[in-house]
Amino acid sequence: MAEGYSYPVLVEFEKTNSSRLKNKLIKYFQSKKSNGGDCEVEYEPIKPSGFRLFSPSDQKNVLTKQDHQINLDEGVLKMTVRLPSGQRVSAKVYYGTCLAKWEALYLSLAISSTIGIIIPVIIKRLMTHQQML
């Protein structure tokens, strides 16, 4: 694999006999349909496939999308995507997102001047922050 592709995603699907599956996987995960981007695909018919994306935000976007499927001659192939065992979403994406949320929370707290306003703001922000992760 090329060095620039360092954000892995594991793709799981039912066994298929499609001879063009690797090309279809590449096209799909590079398209807007998958929320993906520039990637390389490792495909072996006997085990789950993997691919690596060029950017951490593409990895996060692919993992966030609920339904992944491609059309084959035999019908629709539904896929499940996840991080490989022991992998985590890029810390750069995760912490960048968290930092922006906490900066917004700090700013809103600095503007608020009474405890009666601050506590509901904190609760609301924390609940919103947890839902977005």
Q: How would you characterize this protein structure?
A:
This is PAR14-like first RRM domain-containing protein. It comes from Cyprinodon variegatus (Sheepshead minnow). Residues 9-82 form the PAR14-like first RRM domain. The chain crosses the membrane at residues 104-123. Keywords: Membrane, Transmembrane, Transmembrane helix. The longest helix has 21 residues, at 91-111. The protein starts with 6 loop residues before the first strand and ends with a helix. It folds into 2 domains: 7-82, RRM (RNA recognition motif) domain (Alpha-Beta Plaits), CATH 3.30.70; 91-132. The chain has helices at residues 21-29, 56-64, 91-111, 115-132, and strands spanning 7-13, 39-42, 49-53, 68-72, 75-82. The chain is built from 4 helices and 5 strands. β4 and β5 (75-82) form a beta hairpin. It is an alpha+beta fold and 133 residues long. α3 packs antiparallel against α4. A 5-stranded antiparallel beta sheet has the order 2-3-1-5-4.
